[in-house]
Design goal:
The complex is a heterodimer of chains A (258) and B (268).
Chain A (H helix, E strand, L loop, with lengths): L8 E12 L2 E12 L3 E5 L6 H8 L9 E9 L2 E2 L7 H7 E4 L11 H10 L6 H14 L3 H4 L12 H13 L5 E5 L7 H14 L4 E5 L3 H7 L2 E6 L2 E7 H6 L4 H7 L5
Parallel strand pairs in A: 3-8, 3-9, 6-7, 7-8
Antiparallel strand pairs in A: 1-2, 1-4, 4-5, 9-10
Helix pairs in contact in A: 3-4, 3-6, 4-6, 6-7
Chain B lengths: L1 H26 L5 H5 L13 H32 L3 H15 L2 H16 L4 H26 L2 H9 L4 H12 L1 H16 L3 H4 L19 H10 L3 H36 L1
Classes of the chains: A alpha/beta (258), B mainly alpha (268).
């Protein structure tokens, strides 16, 4: 493995184009994700934000007709290199989806342990500690510690989403991808997740897709604006929201379209 | 409109009730201990039971399940998970055609390829014929049930670093399990009452036999022989055997209902 060119730089895309068959959903996007920062991807629906996110952990190639050109570098290493196993890669890059997706046949405990068990057996005590640690990081431990054996479906939507965060964190990934994680949550659930982003960025590099501009402004260090598959503008969040350099960005954040 | 629909559903239920009522009226009086424990007696003598047929049904249907369930479920999983290509289309088409194939044709097929080469009728050939009926049914049911599992669950498992096969088994199949079990029970109940495919394969046997390589009696075959025979005593036993078979199928259907209820209970 090549040593990272810049220790501050964790994840990077180089001229990444994502296609469905012949149709490009993401066009020639080069982006940098510094270590332990939160980057928000904003833009109107259908502008390739989610597709871009799914390229980072090689989920895009599982979609019908999905393929890419360009590179995605994790710690300087191209994740699309033939020597990289996509399954192993996904254990280093956790993902949380738009809707909570707890495994319905598993208990709360088993849900969190799922990503660890798939990596091979480990001693019970170690597993217990990892599950507790992940649930604490997801700020869910106190609410579920007495019912770890209960079905995950008994939790509220907001709790289920934090359970999914815990499940993604348990294998100790380097990067956390959040695809509109609060889209289906109420304000309280949303606030919980946003607070989590703040706390988790000391340990993880976070990329979050959101439709909620206030949310992007509240929680991210950097914001990237996508429009029709193109990266229009990338900047420090406060700069992008106060003095955007592109007219289209300004039009979007001031609500003139989108 | 509501009245019409109610009338039609009443007619549907009425048919079942009439059959069941008739079976109970004519068959229940013959159900005694010896009916379940004794073997048939020679024609003309009274008494005797269908113990051989009850055991034979259990063996033949059980063996059919052992052969048919794994193949059917496996095919269904394949269709749901990997069946989007040309091969999937072909398998699905074949399954649909086989689903519509008259069971007697399956019986003749099994006779040609199993009974004739082996040189004699056997319970095993009967089980194979029943399994052949079960497989396409189970494949399609399993496929439907697996397809009902939300796509997002599959994605969640894959994003967690699950290999594809493990996603299929540990997450998808487990989530669809109650539905698959229901499909299995319905499939077993359906073939338990089959007669035609057994006529040329298991043949029937007046004696008690547990050897799967020999001809074996089943309830459906016993009903066929007794109902078409000339003796009143046989007719009496045929009614009773029909009642037992019907009860067996009802029991399996109830078990299937119960399995469905379990699934909905778990989803709540």
């Amino acid at each position: 493995m090549a040593p990272p060119a810049d220790a501050r730089l964790q994840l990077q895309t180089v001229r990444l184009t994502a296609l469905y068959g012949r149709r490009a959903a993401v066009k020639d996007v080069s982006l940098l994700f510094p270590r332990h920062t939160v980057t928000a991807l904003i833009g109107p629906s259908g502008c390739g934000k989610t597709t871009f996110l799914r390229c980072l952990n090689r989920m895009h190639e599982l979609s019908e007709g999905g393929w890419i050109t360009g590179k995605v570098l994790l710690d300087g290493e191209d994740v699309y290199d033939p020597s990289i196993d996509a399954i192993q890669l996904r254990r280093r890059i956790g993902m949380v989806f738009q809707r909570p997706t707890p495994f319905p046949t598993m208990s709360i405990y088993d849900n969190v342990a799922a990503g660890l068990r798939v990596n091979g057996g480990r001693p019970r005590a170690e597993l217990d500690a990892a599950v507790e640690g992940a649930l604490r990081q997801a700020a869910l431990w106190d609410e579920v510690k007495d019912r770890l054996r209960h079905s995950a479906l008994a939790l509220s939507g907001g709790q289920q989403q934090r359970l999914c965060v815990a499940r993604a964190l348990a294998p100790e990934p380097d990067v956390l991808l959040l695809d509109e994680p609060t889209a289906s949550l109420d304000p309280a659930g949303t606030q919980h997740i946003e607070e989590l982003c703040h706390e988790l960025k000391s340990r993880y590099t976070i990329v979050i897709v959101t439709h909620n501009l206030q949310q992007a402004a509240r929680i991210s260090d950097y914001t990237a604006f996508f429009y029709l598959g193109d990266l229009v503008e990338l900047g420090r969040t406060e700069e992008l929201f106060t003095k955007p350099t592109k007219e289209r960005t300004e039009a979007y954040i001031t609500g003139r379209f989108g | 409109m509501t009245g019409l629909v109610a009338l039609l559903s009443f007619l549907a239920v009425l048919a079942l009730l009439l059959i069941l009522g008739d079976l109970i009226a004519r068959g229940a009086s013959s159900l005694d201990w010896s009916f379940f424990t004794k073997n048939p007696v020679p024609a003309g003598e009274s008494g005797g039971g269908v113990a051989n047929a009850i055991v034979g049904t259990a063996i033949i249907v059980g063996l059919a399940g052992l052969i048919g369930l794994p193949i059917g479920i496996g095919t269904g999983l394949y269709l749901a998970e990997y069946g989007s290509g040309r091969l999937g289309w072909i398998v699905r088409f074949v399954a649909d055609v086989m689903n519509g194939t008259p069971s007697i044709v399956v019986g003749i097929f099994a006779w040609t390829w199993l009974v004739k080469p082996m040189g004699h009728f056997s319970a095993l050939a009967g089980s194979m014929a029943l399994a052949m009926l079960m497989v396409p049914m189970l494949a399609r049911t399993t496929e439907e049930m697996v397809r009902l599992v939300p796509h997002s669950l599959r994605e969640a498992a894959l994003a967690l670093g699950y290999p594809r096969w493990r996603t299929s088994l540990r997450v998808i199949a487990r989530t669809a399990l109650a539905g698959i079990v229901t499909g299995c029970l319905v499939g077993v109940a359906r073939v338990a009452g089959e007669t035609a495919p057994l006529l040329f394969t298991a043949l029937g046997n007046l004696n008690f036999s547990t050897s799967v390589l020999q001809p074996m009696q089943t309830l459906s075959l016993q009903i066929y022989v007794y109902a078409t025979g000339p003796f009143d005593e046989w007719h009496r036993l045929a009614w009773a055997a029909a009642l037992v078979l019907m009860g067996l199928v009802l029991l399996l259907s109830l078990a299937a209902r119960w399995a469905i209820r379990q699934r909905h209970g778990a989803a709540r």
